[in-house]
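Milestone M4 deliverable, item 7.
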Amino acid sequence: MRAQYSEAPELRKTPKRNPTSPDSDPSSSGSASSSDSENKKQGRKIRKLKKKLRKARKLKHSPKDPTPYKGQPDYDIFEKWNFEVERWINEYEMSNEKAVERIGSYLKDKASQWYMDFVAPEPEKYTVDSIKMGLFAYCFPPDMKAQLRREFKYAKQGNQKFIDYMRTLRRFQRRLPDISDRQICHKIWDTVHTYIKVKWIKAGMDSEETELETLVTAAEKYEQAEEVLQKAKTYQFTSNGNRKTEYVVKPRIAEQAKGLDSGKKGESSKAKKDKKKKPKEKSKGDKPKDDRPRAKLTKEERNQLRAEANAISALQYSKIDELRKEREQLYLSVAAIQLFGSPNVSDTEEETPTAADNELLRVTDENAETIKIKYSEIAKQIRDTYLEQASRRAQVSKENNPLMVLVSDPEDKEEVEELSIQLNAAQIDKGKTRETTTRNIERNASKPKDVTRRLPKPIIVEASINGNKLSTNSSSKKKH
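Output delivered:
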């Protein structure tokens, strides 16, 4: 191990005797050699004791071990581990060979795997610096320096203090050694707050000639002055529009002078104190703004506001009535026509009464035009529409296949579905208020029902086609 002995003991040197002198004899030379050997032994003992003392002192104040590095691609963590390893080696006065052997104890995960694969088999080929470089190349991406340069290029002060921003730039300079102080001067000149740059210019500084330390020192002072100015502005507050008032602290000398004047007056000061003790009567002007009576509206203004409110409510009710009437539209389809001999008719008629022939209905066509029509006229329109479609289909079929024998079977399900038409019909309200509901009604069922079993009034259409009486049983369905 390396050891420095700056405090080596001073050995006493015996004067050399001249062998030709009459005082010199063999006995005196023997005693001198024995004293020299004793002094050497004593010096060795002293050195051993000092070495033991140093070891005991180190054991008493042992340095902290480095935090294990796990191989994260984080430059801050790697830099901290590097600093702790250097301090650990220096405090233990460790040689390079021993440091290479023991540094693996402070590596984990990915970094430890690299150490066991490359360094542990041949530790004599590595040094502490080569291990650090190998870990950096293995754990960090290959374009790490390019990323650092990109971050340095787009760095700005932003919301940071100048001292923090300068520390960030110094960190980039430490990790990228080719960044010079002059480059940092250009960087801070273009990216600091505007007021700092203005004060630099007023002070006659420049990024080309002024030293970096001079710019940094001046910027820190400018920033401190700006903070003091901002704190002073916080004592100002806005009230009653844009008028600003400030709190002014009176000096104590003025207060003391007032006290002396009041003491000279004597009774007048006591009278003033008595007046202060008496509660003041609150006037109307002393009331806070919220308690003051507000300006009352005139009778004409109140009537005008009521009229506007009534007009708005009437408009809303009219819109609601229009929406309600639209929901009362009913749909009739020829696909629901059945013969009187159908077994389902008797069951349906028990629960659905037949409507009167002279009952008026409101019918809406495809163009949203509404007309009033009697119940008995609907069957005629259905019959005419059916005959028209049947003749048109027969003509088309004859043109396509003249030899084909046409068979009209109105009971055929597919044929009836092809001839389906829709009439949007709604019964005219006769003054009775009916409860409207927006619940979903079950469709395509012989007994339509909703959650409450409240069924709207059904419509049964009687029509005759080709001399045969047909019956339509269609429950009115409300449009949602």
